[in-house]
Amino acid sequence: MTVNMTKVGRRGLLFSFDELNKAPYYCTTNVFILMGHKRYYVCDTYLGAYYMTPILTYLESHYGKKDYVIFNSHSHWDHIWGNSLFHNHLIVSHEKCRAFIQLEGEEEMKAHADSYAKEQVEIVLPNVTFSHSMVFEDDEVEFFYSPGHSEDSSSCYDRQEKILFVGDNVEAPLPSLSWHDMEQYILTLQHYLEMDAKHIVISHGPVINRSLIRDNIAYLCNLKRHNKLTFSDNDIMQKHHDNLNFLNHGN
């Protein structure tokens, strides 16, 4: 297991893993932690307890024991398997995210566990859900619905440090589609640009600035208008073809 840690602002920690940085995904994957006064806010739980346990050990040895609030940004398998480590803590998500995990979590686990699980995977559902937003006022941490990459996507905003965690809604070099409503996706990204965020954290890659959000919007606008796009990089072109294939044939 290879993991790198990056400090984000005064109370954010970004843990980046390499297990998916190979075919067919070619991406690092992040677990983002906000250190509140009373709680650790854990944004996504990656591929299971095997990967999450060292993070908890690091947090508690360096910053002490606190309650944990787990946030699932969306239902996809590479973001939720570590929920099993947090049975006795709050696991928060949008209501659609919980419904999708309940509907698809076991099937996705069976499809990917042989390749990516280090131990037996147990699908654990969020035990607290919201429809629009949920705020922990004492720590100035907000979770809010932000559909885009998927219909069930949500984001996390640290009002104190102005750190915005956007999950898979922003990606480099192109966004990845798993939902057909590009108009709503664009609205979500435009909302990000309107927010007073100093640091923007994504699930797959380093901390970004607003230029990548603008690039993602431009790409989605071209898709929406059915403009023909070409890219000199073969990997980027393949990702574009994957998006087109989803729009034409995806569910």
Automatic annotation (TrEMBL):
SMART domains found in the cross-reference section: Lactamase_B
InterPro entries tied to this protein: Metallo-B-lactamas (IPR001279), NDM-1-like (IPR050855), RibonucZ/Hydroxyglut_hydro (IPR036866)
Residues covered by the Metallo-beta-lactamase domain: 28-204
Gene3D superfamilies in the record: Ribonuclease Z/Hydroxyacylglutathione hydrolase-like
SUPFAM superfamilies: Metallo-hydrolase/oxidoreductase
Domain of life: Bacteria
Protein name: MBL fold metallo-hydrolase
Organism field: Vallitalea pronyensis
